[in-house]
Amino acid sequence: MIVFDIETCPIYQEYGDLPERYRLSWDYHCERRDLGDPAEAYERWAGLDAIMSKVVCISTIDDNDEVRSFYGNDERRVLARFSHFLMSQGSGVQLGGHYILGFDIPFLLRRMLIHGIHIPTSLDIRDRKPWELKHIVDSYELWRMNTRSSASLVSLCVAFGIPSPKDDISGADVKRVWYSGDHERVVRYCEADVIATKKVIEHL
After folding, report:
1. Is 90 exceeded by the pLDDT of residue 76?
2. Which of 149, 142, 59, 50 is nearest to 103 (CA)?
3. Residue 81, domain CATH
4. Which of 44, 75, 79, 82 is the most exposed place for a label (fewest CB within 10 A)?
């Protein structure tokens, strides 16, 4: 199994940096979603939007506990390297993560489409039936157990006595840390997430 996690941050650091076409798109998005002031909403939500944000780091861990990270400001290169890595594992490779069906995988697919990067079969969930996704192990879904609620990765780490991967920074800090130039700190955070997620999955 390849357990993975991604870190994202806005393509443009601040709302005021947005080119006009991005700003108009974001303003329209905020109006439709009733998100309030676009500048404030940008600070809070832009990092989760696959049009306004980019993938800056992807970390993986395999069954032998070997950790790999693909990261940098050149998103196209990051995505292409990750795509090549997954394809080298074969179409039947099992994928794992926390909330990857709800966030990580859709975000990756959208950014790969934008860059025209080949989407590995194992990652392509478009038009797939639930029984066609059995190769994807999502700890969020496993803990949900067909109910309406689940738990965060931090909460599951607490439950199973696993050290929290958020002791240094959290997802809310990624933009600030990345744009400060401390890329290695973001990589360490992403790697801590996949290590913890693998341990959680082993309990489930």
Report:
1. yes
2. 50
3. 3.30.420.10
4. 44
**DSSP assignment letter at 5:** E
d(CA 82, CA 57): 10
E strand or H helix at 110: helix 105-115
**For the chain, what percent of residues have pLDDT higher than 70?**
100
Beta strands in 33-190 (DSSP E): 53-61, 67-71, 95-97, 136-138
Enclosing domain of residue 151: 2-203
Give the whole-number percent of the chain exceeding pLDDT 90: 91
Instruction: Of 44, 35, 49, give the one whose Cα is nearest residue 14.
Output: 44
Number of domains, the chain: 1
pLDDT at 168: 87
Instruction: Tell me the average pLDDT of the chain.
Output: 96
φ, ψ of residue 67 to 5 degrees: the values are -100, 135
Q: Can you tell me the distance from the alpha carbon of 74 to that of 55, in angstroms, rounded to the nearest whole number? A: 9
Measured between alpha carbons, how far is 137 from 176 in angstroms, rounded to an integer?
31
Nearest-angstrom CA–CA distance, 143 and 152: 10
| Pairing state between β 136-138 and 67-71 | unpaired
Residue 65, by phi and psi: left (phi above 0), alpha (psi -120 to 50) or beta?
left
Q: What is the pTM of this model?
A: 0.95
pLDDT band at 166 (very low <50, low <70, confident <90, very high): confident
